[in-house]
Amino acid sequence: KQEVTQIPAALSVPEGENLVLNCSFTDSAIYNLQWFRQDPGKGLTSLLLIQSSQREQTSGRLNASLDKSSGRSTLYIAASQPGDSATYLCAVHSSNTGKLIFGQGTTLQVKP
Amino acid sequence: ETGVTQTPRHLVMGMTNKKSLKCEQHLGHNAMYWYKQSAKKPLELMFVYSLEERVENNSVPSRFSPECPNSSHLFLHLHTLQPEDSALYLCASSQEPNLGTSGGWYNEQFFGPGTRLTVL
Is the model's pLDDT at A88 over the cut of 90? Predict the structure, then answer.
């Protein structure tokens, strides 16, 4: 059974820091991996999607990497800003079930 | 309207009430989903509809009843809910080119803002 774990559960950093959020999954049989952002009480905004054949994707200050064989992904945020404060969710598309399996998220606070 | 919209955004209901959640996608997608997000738990898939047909029911209690009248609209009918059903209910959609052939839905999913449901 696919399980997705995100560490840390919460993170607080001063503005301007570069930071890394971690995601691990137990079954390497995946089609792709998505990173989402969720603001309090709101829906999910898709940030990056990495296909299983890819190693990384970049969008602006965000860079996501994928190491399928070791079951890990990282989301790198450069020069963090207070507006980056949100919960970041990692989800994998299981190729066994076709379902999107979510981690519990990392809640990020960037202090001015 | 663009993307995926959901109404209402907030709903408070008693255990004996009947209410419905509505989702509409303006992306021309052919698959729609209901997810439940409870406090301290990961998002859980509830239902999947492809081409207006329910193709997945993730062991959801019968007090939740989905309806998909067309490819743009998805409803979740609620009746005799329990307080533990209080959660954020999220709708999503995606465009799946290989529907029905491989048993899964693999493309990027786009989410609505959710309905915050409180059951008293």
Answer: yes
